[in-house]
UniProtKB/TrEMBL annotation:
The keyword Cell membrane does not apply. Pfam families: HIPIP (PF01355). Residues 29-98 form the High potential iron-sulfur proteins family profile domain. It comes from Salinicola endophyticus. GO terms for biological process: aerobic electron transport chain. It comes from the Bacteria. This is High-potential iron-sulfur protein. The keyword Metal-binding applies. GO terms for molecular function: 4 iron, 4 sulfur cluster binding; electron transfer activity; metal ion binding. Homodimer.
Length: 98
């Protein structure tokens, strides 16, 4: 067996495995629970589900919310909380402009 054929077979096997696992990954991403504001990591960044509830926080600025934060991505995901979804209307003190 030539090196090119070995490389082709290895890459084909890796691609096949990736295609088999891809649907499961999407299902896992969609089934992530919403972040509980009472959770330790949420309290550490003062996360609230409604930005209006943070108006008394000194770090709060009007118009800042999860949906327009650089950490927020599709599927209500936040880079700070990879195992949870967050509310698009939420807010935390780690807000970063896009």
């Amino acid at each position: 067996m030539s090196i090119d054929r070995r490389r082709f077979l290895c890459r084909g096997a890796a691609l096949s495995a990736g295609l088999l696992l891809a649907p499961g990954w999407r299902a896992w991403a969609q089934s992530a629970p919403l972040l509980d504001p009472a959770a330790r990591q949420a309290r550490a960044v003062r996360y609230v589900e409604q930005a209006s509830a943070a108006q008394d926080d000194p770090a709060y600025r009007a118009g800042r919310r999860c949906a327009n934060c650089d950490f927020f991505s599709a599927g209500q995901r936040c880079a700070l909380f990879p195992e949870h979804r967050v509310s698009p209307d939420g807010w935390c003190m780690s807000w970063t402009s896009e």
